């Protein structure tokens, strides 16, 4: 009887631990194939993300509202992940690609001390392409007003797993840093 209780408790503990190491409320959106250029004028695509854990967002360099705080938050997350020895890549898709050339993106990233060895700022597509890519993949608006106003876009960070699946989105302005790091660690341990 006592032996059966121990076996039951061990089994129950394993189930509880497994449940605790799951990411709650997964989105499970598949990221479409893409091939764009980064701040170094190098090609970066979905195949480059395969096997890597990635955190992505959408920004533009001449934004006067949310993009600088979001980029500062992403830089902080990049630094925290490095301190935790987490192997994670970062992607920032420009939502104003006609303005955001590789050189402009590089200067923008440098202003936030971005570590370009693990962070790509992407451009090299048309405005129409990113306005279709954002909603289709990240379920967020991307729209450049015809009257010349600032690009309207979402402010989320997106966690992408090693298979190119968008697992979860997070607030990119009021960032739950510890939660994101915990979820990155869960993905690393599932490898």
Main traits of this protein?
alpha+beta; Glutaredoxin
Characterise the protein shown here:
There is one protein chain. With 191 residues, the chain is α+β, with helices and mostly antiparallel strands. The protein has one domain: Glutaredoxin. It is built from six helices and ten strands; from the N terminus they run αβββαβαβαβαββββα. It has helices spanning 2-20, 46-49, 67-83, 102-111, 127-138, 177-190; strands spanning 29-30, 35-37, 43-45, 53-59, 88-94, 119-122, 142-143, 152-153, 156-160, 165-171. The strands form three sheets. It has a six-stranded mixed β-sheet with strand order 1-10-9-4-5-6, sandwiched between helices. A two-stranded antiparallel sheet has the order 2-3. Strand 7 (142-143) and strand 8 (152-153) form a beta hairpin. The protein is globular, with a radius of gyration of 19 Å. It starts with a helix and ends with a helix. Residues 8-19 have low confidence and may be disordered.
Class from helix and strand fractions: alpha+beta
Terminal residue distance? 38 Å
- Overall body shape: globular
Q: Tell me what the CATH architecture is.
A: 3-Layer(aba) Sandwich
- Radius of gyration equals 19 Å
Number of strands: 10
**Low-confidence spans:** 8-19
Biggest sheet statistics: 6 strands, mixed
**Count of helical stretches:** 6
Q: Widest sheet: strand order?
A: 1-10-9-4-5-6
């Amino acid at each position: 009887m006592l032996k059966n209780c121990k076996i039951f408790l061990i089994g129950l503990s394993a189930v509880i631990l497994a449940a605790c190491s799951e990411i709650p409320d997964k989105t499970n959106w598949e990221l479409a194939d893409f091939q764009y250029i980064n701040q170094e004028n190098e090609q970066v695509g979905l195949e480059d993300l395969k096997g890597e854990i990635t955190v992505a967002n959408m920004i533009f360099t001449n934004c006067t509202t949310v993009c600088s705080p979001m980029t500062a938050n992403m830089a902080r997350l990049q630094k925290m992940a490095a301190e935790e020895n987490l192997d994670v890549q970062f992607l920032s898709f420009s939502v104003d690609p006609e303005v955001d050339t590789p050189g402009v993106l590089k200067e923008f990233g440098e202003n936030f001390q971005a570590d370009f060895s693990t962070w790509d700022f992407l451009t090299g597509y048309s405005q129409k392409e990113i306005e279709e890519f954002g909603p289709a993949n990240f379920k967020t608006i991307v729209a450049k007003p015809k009257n010349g106003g600032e690009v309207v876009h979402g402010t989320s960070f997106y966690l992408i797993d090693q298979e190119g699946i968008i697992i979860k989105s997070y607030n990119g302005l009021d960032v739950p840093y510890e939660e994101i790091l915990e979820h990155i660690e869960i993905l690393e341990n599932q490898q």
